[in-house]
């Protein structure tokens, strides 16, 4: 059996989308999957090193790792009218060079934030520490991501939604690309396609059995989100559109990569279709 090391974040959406496979709800078909849960910026840094066979990554990172990883169509998270939030203390007015805590240099929200607020003084923290840094006064503001957007201290208010920044930069109504998965190019193509298919099946099965899977995850203390918030969170970031990217999501990714190139973040403007696994390969292989 071929061992495939899968890295994902410990956030509810990634856990939910992966664990249908870990629980044996999807056949392994000749693969032995091992998983590891790490915060998203650590995953981004590891992807820059080509560390894992399959890894969750921020979409904004992808052009930097395109030679090492192909993009998978599944396990994706997009914001549709929502997303990360720039928060501050109530009744605080932010200066142009305000100090802000972000969740990591290569996250999508960090890229969009830097474009929108070029004079801000940035410090990078684990996303679980950002709210506390704002409350303590260590920073003037912070961008909340993952489940922290669902609830935060009542003394904090939203200064701006990153969704609004995205809409202004994209110049059209498109879903906000946040995170996806990459697979190492060193894995033979036929095996990579099978891994993508198995992961896609896992996301689809998870979506069909949310209550049972959520119960099993809670019993094993794998989730940080409370029961009453879990359904809301999964509907945001692990929904039906997470199973396989559609044309609108692909268009949004192309726009994100174009914005990054226009602001000199990437060395080349890329088109997402050129970096997906070629589904036609298996048909050609059998013909």
From TrEMBL:
Reactions catalysed according to its record: cyclic dehypoxanthinylfutalosinate = 1,4-dihydroxy-6-naphthoate + dihydroxyacetone
GO biological process: menaquinone biosynthetic process
Molecular functions (GO terms): carbon-carbon lyase activity
Enzyme Commission numbers on file: 4.1.99.29
InterPro entries to which the protein is assigned, alphabetical: Menaquinone_biosynth, MqnD
Lineage top rank: taxon: Bacteria
Alphabetically ordered keywords of this record: Lyase, Menaquinone biosynthesis
Cited Pfam families: VitK2_biosynth (PF02621)
Keyword Cytoplasm set for record: no
Catalytic site: 146 (proton acceptor)
Pathway info: Quinol/quinone metabolism; menaquinone biosynthesis
Signal peptide stretch: none
Enzyme's top EC category: lyase
Gene3D superfamilies recorded: Periplasmic binding protein-like II (3.40.190.10)
HAMAP family xrefs: MqnD
Family indicated by similarity: Belongs to the MqnA/MqnD family. MqnD subfamily.
PANTHER family noted in UniProt: 1,4-DIHYDROXY-6-NAPHTOATE SYNTHASE
Protein's job: Catalyzes the conversion of cyclic dehypoxanthine futalosine (cyclic DHFL) into 1,4-dihydroxy-6-naphthoate, a step in the biosynthesis of menaquinone (MK, vitamin K2).
Record protein name field: 1,4-dihydroxy-6-naphtoate synthase
Gene assigned in the entry: mqnD
């Amino acid at each position: 059996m071929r061992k495939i090391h899968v890295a994902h974040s410990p956030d509810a959406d990634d856990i939910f989308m992966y664990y249908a496979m870990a629980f044996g709800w999807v056949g392994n078909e000749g693969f032995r999957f091992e998983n590891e849960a790490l915060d998203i910026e650590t995953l981004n840094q590891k992807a820059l090193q080509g560390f894992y066979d399959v890894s969750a990554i921020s979409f904004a990172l992808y052009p930097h790792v395109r030679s090492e990883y192909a993009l998978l169509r599944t396990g994706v998270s997009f914001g549709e009218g929502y997303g990360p939030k720039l928060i501050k203390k109530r009744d605080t007015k932010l200066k142009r060079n305000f100090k802000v805590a972000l969740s990591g240099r290569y996250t999508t929200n960090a890229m969009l934030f830097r474009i929108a607020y070029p004079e801000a003084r940035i410090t990078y923290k684990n996303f679980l520490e950002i709210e506390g840094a704002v409350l303590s006064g260590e920073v003037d503001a912070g961008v909340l991501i993952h489940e922290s957007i669902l609830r935060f201290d009542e003394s904090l208010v939203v200064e701006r939604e990153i969704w609004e920044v995205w809409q202004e930069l994209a110049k059209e109504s498109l879903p906000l690309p946040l995170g996806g998965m990459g697979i190492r190019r060193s894995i033979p193509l036929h095996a990579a396609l099978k891994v993508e298919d198995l992961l896609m099946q896992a996301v689809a099965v998870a979506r069909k059995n949310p209550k049972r899977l959520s119960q099993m995850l809670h019993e094993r203390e794998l989730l940080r989100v409370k029961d009453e918030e879990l359904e809301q969170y999964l509907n945001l970031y692990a929904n039906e559109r997470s199973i396989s990217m559609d044309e609108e999501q692909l268009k949004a990714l192309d726009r994100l990569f174009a914005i990054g190139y226009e602001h000199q973040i990437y060395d080349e403007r890329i088109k997402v279709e050129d970096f997906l696994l070629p589904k036609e390969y298996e048909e050609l292989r059998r013909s």
